[in-house]
Amino acid sequence: MLVAAAPAFGQERATEVNVPVADAEAAVRLLGRQARISVGFRDPRLTRIRVNAVRGRYTPAQALERLLAGTSVRAVRVAPASFVIDRAPPRSKPVIAAPRTPVPVAPEPAPEEIVVTATKRDVPLVAYAGGAQIIDGEALSLAEAARGTGSIETSAASVTSTHLGTGRNKLFIRGIADSSFVGPTQATVGQYWGNSRITYSAPDPSLRLYDVRSVEVLEGPQGTLYGAGSLGGVVRVVPNAPDLRTIGGAVWGGVQATEHGDPGVDGGAVLNLPLVEDRLALRVLAFGGIEGGYIDDRQRGLEDVNRVTSWGGRAALRYLPGDDWTIDITALGQRIDGDDSQYADRPGDRLSRASATAQPYRNDFWLGEALFRKNWGSLEWTSSIGYARQYVFEQFEGPRLDLARLDQAPAVDAAPTVFTQRNNIDMITAETRLARRGKDGAGWLVAASLLHNRARVRRSMGESRDRATLTGVRNQVDEVTLYGEYAMLPVQDVTVTLGGRITRSRLAGQSEDVAPVIALRMDPSAGDSRSETRGLPSASVSWRARDQLTLFARYQEGFRPGGIAVRQDFIQRFQGDRVATLEGGARFGSDRVDLSVTLSYTRWRNIQADIVDGFGFPTTANIGDGRVVSIGWSGRWRPTAGLELDAALYLNDSRITDPAFMILPYDTVAIDRGRLPNVADRSSRLGARYSRDLGFGHHLDVSGYARYIGQSTLGIGSILGRLQGNYVDTGLDMRVGNDRRGLSLTVTNLLDARGNRFALGSPFLIRDQDQITPLKPRSIRIGLDLAF
Question: What percent of the chain is predicted at pLDDT more than 70?
Answer without folding.
Answer: 90
